[in-house]
What we know:
With 663 residues, the chain is an alpha+beta fold.
Amino acid sequence: MDKKKTTKTKKSSQTKILKGKLDISRSGMGFVIVEDQEKDIIVKPNDFGKAFHGDTVRVQIATGGGLGNKRVEGKIIDVVERKQVVFLGNLQVTKTTAFFCPSGEKPIPDFFIPMDELKGAVDGDRVMARLVRWDKNDRKPQGVIESIIDARNESDLAMKEILIGAGFTMGFDDAVLKEADSFSEKITREELSKRKDFRDILTFTIDPVDAKDFDDAISIRNLDNGNYEIGVHIADVSHFVKQGSLLDKSAYERATSVYLPDRVNPMLPEKISNELCSLRPNEDKYTFSVVFQITNRAEIKHQWIGRTVIHSNHRYAYEDVQQIIETQEGINFKAILLLNNLAKQFRKKRFEQGAINFSSTEVKFQLDENGSPIGIVVKESKDAHKLIEEFMLLANKAVAEYVSKIKINKEAIPFPYRIHDTPSDEKLKPFVAFAKKFGYAFDMHDEKQVATSFNNLLQEIQGKPEQHVLEQLGIRTMAKAVYTAENIGHYGLGFEHYCHFTSPIRRYPDVMVHRILLSCLEKNIKVENKLEDWCKHCSDRERAAMECERAGNKYKQVEFMKQYIGDEFDGVISGVSGFGFWVETVEHKCEGLISIRDLSEYDDFQLDETDYALIGLNTKKKFRMGDKIKIRVVAANLTKRQLDYEWVVEGGLSAKKAKSKRK
């Protein structure tokens, strides 16, 4: 009997170590998310070890029946990779000691700061600090002060906090800036001998009116055989940013530029992004190009890929090109009209071959000299934008197809493809059922038929009441595009091979693509074993940048709507949950929440997930996604980046007053 007990104890004491990502909730409880494991591993605060929220960690668990469906408890024994090493917070200084107190929703211990690492900061300063180390025997992590946060105003501070909170570094180290400044703009004879010279061919850029980093240009000329030669020329960032250099490490760490309403946090220093690599007019520049020979029926007869040198003749804003398209006159109008005609043909073919024609509304804030929002403009995607889009897609596809054909020992070389998976049944089936309520049928036989059904739906709903809800829900059924060496194609674009090649100033994957592409062209291929890890890092940083951009836009929405507290607006229900629903104002595209707590003054509401609606148990009043509704702005909380609305029932009444009147 005693022997059995001993065996049982020994079995339960067996442990297993898994790798995953630590997610710390607002309450302070931790969960380690492990790939291929259905349930997260619970970790109590005392068992975090030296880990912070978002870190990749090794967690130790007991193997006695824990894995599988039952959630188990674990203890973190090691930090594999830090998600974030720079933090925002406040400094506390006494005569002999200094501590940095991180701010934010996730609990992080205070850092000990040596007195000689304060960088001039004093007690109470808002500062940015870098984690230096947290050794096994240290009670607290040790850090250094990076900089004092010198904010012009509350909004400026909020934008900086958004960036730092997502792990993005502001500014560049002196050594990185020095390396960037060491390069010359001069086109050398030696380098020119390695490139095709396109400087005598009509070339121009088309970008937003306020852009400073022009990383793509288009050239065009007529050929004697009646076809057109159209070049897509991309800034040759990899010529300057060498793999393993300080510039490269800094760019990889960021992996992307971040675009907030009032600023850009660039991936590369200005010397690279706005000067050396920006394809500014009337300057010779190094480029990487895909040059197509195209018929007037948009048939590609030949293509060439290689390094070039160009000279941009003109810089257009999108508005300039749109005016030329609409008036059919202006500088180089014949070339622009031709490109627009070809772009429309390429676009039509894409949709015929299975691409999905989703379009989203983009909002831009008009800001005063202090960065405060004074107006909102809804940006439309017009022919000028679509012209550039089609030729960039063409170049990205051509590069991916070229590299996909190259093999080493009959194996495809590792390459950072941009992939987009098919919609999962879990998301697609509820959407198809919901669309059916409006009379729209889906052919689910195969992926191409689903894409065709999507396009038919998007075309048929134009101008109808259900357009907004079906467009928004349709986008939500789609998988997220990511970078990976495992190519499965790009479902949304309908491409078997696709990559990002055309924006190396603001995206690190494009820099990786340029380097691998050059190694293929020079037949000097080096297989990168860490490529999949690099792709994952870039995908993670892309998601973080998107979250920053959403947070920045939300802050500006709240800042803008503060002036309208008490005012009423027409809106459209943009989302529904068990605790309320979101409404986007028609006039400003600013989204706020109507809480179910406030609605309970009118009736008891329950969520109907299949109908994307809240339904009143007594009145049968329905709030469904896409419904039009009148709202009143009741609160604007900048700290939480949250707008609160209330439902204006009838004659300007609130829910509570409407209920009283009904009684």
